[in-house]
Amino acid sequence: MAAPPQPSPAAPAPAAAAADAFRLGFVGAGNLAESIARGVAASGVLPASAIRTAPHRRPERGDAFASLGARILASNGQVVDDSDVIVISVKPQIVKQVLVELKPLLSEEKLLVSIAAGIKMKDLQDWSGQRRIIRVMPNTPSAVGQAASVMCLGEKATENDENRVRSLFSAIGKVWTAEEKYFDAVTGLSGSGPAYIFLAIEAMADGGVAAGLPRDLALGLAAQTVLGAATMVSQTGKHPGQLKDQVTSPAGTTIAGVHELEKGSFRGTLINAVVAATTRCRELSQS
């Protein structure tokens, strides 16, 4: 069995990034685009002056980019013209319209990066006329620098293109490279997954309240416990089952709780949730 793909290392230091300076443009200035821009600027992957976007229908979105030191240009066309890497960060339902409008301005000298959920590489190529494309699926923890992002490369994307995009998304979390055929399952797991964990944190906190804890203490403990457990899996390299066994003493409190979870089909329910979200993603991409 082949080894699973490994996430990227942390974002490079500013000195390393300076050797490959490029201009980064965002077509769409929403919250996810802002998270990427902030991470890129804060980590030193690029200076804020290398980032540009166009005015948004909501003025506060442009203000957020301007507060970083990014350049606000007059139109998406100017963003394309003045950028080496263009991130398509508009809502999925208007990606076709935007790419068709920008098609005359795009060339193979530009790298197109799409973070639009559910929009497949073939459609991106057809609408834009581009083959130098990288598709990326990040998730909402990008807002706190803890994204899980997966990318796939278009047929003319180069190794340098991959390295550039990896550096951008490493600034907001961890990055994996995978074939596009896995992207529906990526959506079902990491795209939708934060909601599953939010529910788990809420339920654990409710359990703490039911057991007599004050609400704020119960919620804080639940959130920190999930964070700590996830960090142990990520940093130790140990299988989650091994870590679970280490905290599960014979006839102790933890095994009593695990027994209840097993009676409620906890693992099976989570598996089914990921599969259901994956199936729904496939349905939406074919509609």
Automatic annotation (TrEMBL):
GO molecular function terms noted in the UniProt entry: pyrroline-5-carboxylate reductase activity
Entry annotated with the keyword Coiled coil: no
Keywords: Amino-acid biosynthesis, Cytoplasm, NADP, Oxidoreductase, Proline biosynthesis
Domain Pyrroline-5-carboxylate reductase dimerisation: 180-284
Tagged with keyword Plastid: no
GO cellular component: cytoplasm
Stored PROSITE patterns: P5CR
Biological-process GO terms, alphabetical: L-proline biosynthetic process
E.C. numbers: 1.5.1.2
Matches recorded under InterPro entries: 6-PGluconate_DH-like_C_sf (IPR008927), NAD(P)-bd_dom_sf (IPR036291), P5C_Rdtase_cat_N (IPR028939), P5CR-like_CS (IPR053790), P5CR_dimer (IPR029036), Pyrroline-COOH_reductase (IPR000304)
SUPFAM superfamilies: 6-phosphogluconate dehydrogenase C-terminal domain-like, NAD(P)-binding Rossmann-fold domains
Superkingdom of the organism of origin: Eukaryota
Chemical reaction(s) catalysed: L-proline + NAD(+) = (S)-1-pyrroline-5-carboxylate + NADH + 2 H(+); L-proline + NADP(+) = (S)-1-pyrroline-5-carboxylate + NADPH + 2 H(+)
Binding site for NADPH: N76
Signal peptide location: none
Primary localisation category: cytoplasm
Domain Pyrroline-5-carboxylate reductase catalytic N-terminal as annotated: residue spans: 23-118
Annotated protein name in UniProt: Pyrroline-5-carboxylate reductase
Organism name: Brachypodium distachyon (Purple false brome)
